[in-house]
Design brief:
The protein has 125 residues and is an all-alpha fold. Helices cover 90% and strands 0% of the residues. The radius of gyration is 19 Å and the shape is elongated. The N and C termini lie far apart (65 Å).
């Protein structure tokens, strides 16, 4: 009976990890598309209000990506500790996921700081 409970716990953790990975992927693609739209908007000479709206959405999505990246890193660390304490095999793909999540975190931090600086400079500060 105990093995069934352990198996259910592992299944729920994997589902939670998959869900957060999909949220991270969606937010990263949304952030990338907003940055592409901003670049195209500068080239096509969008109005300044539209560009500020795109930049504001970019900052908001970058902050969400930072939050979910931190949550996902915490989940992977907890999962590693669970697997290590129960002497289970740790897959290399989990380590690759952590590296990708750290890359998302760094890129979103750079994007949030840069876009916020652009917003402040465009306001005349």
């Amino acid at each position: 009976m105990k093995q069934k409970k352990r198996f259910r716990f592992i299944q729920h953790r994997v589902v939670l990890l998959r869900l957060t990975d999909r949220i991270l992927l969606f937010l990263f693609l949304f952030l990338s598309s907003l940055l592409l739209l901003y670049g195209i908007g500068n080239f096509q000479e969008f109005t300044s209000e539209n560009l500020l709206l795109i930049l504001s959405l970019t900052v908001f999505s970058a902050i969400l990506l930072i939050i979910f990246s931190l949550i996902s890193i915490f989940e992977y660390i907890a999962f590693f500790l669970y697997m290590f304490l129960n002497k289970k095999i740790i897959k290399v793909s989990f380590l690759i996921h952590i590296v990708i999540i750290l890359l998302f975190l760094i890129l979103s931090l750079i994007t949030a700081i840069t876009t916020r600086a652009i917003i402040l400079l465009s306001a005349g500060l």
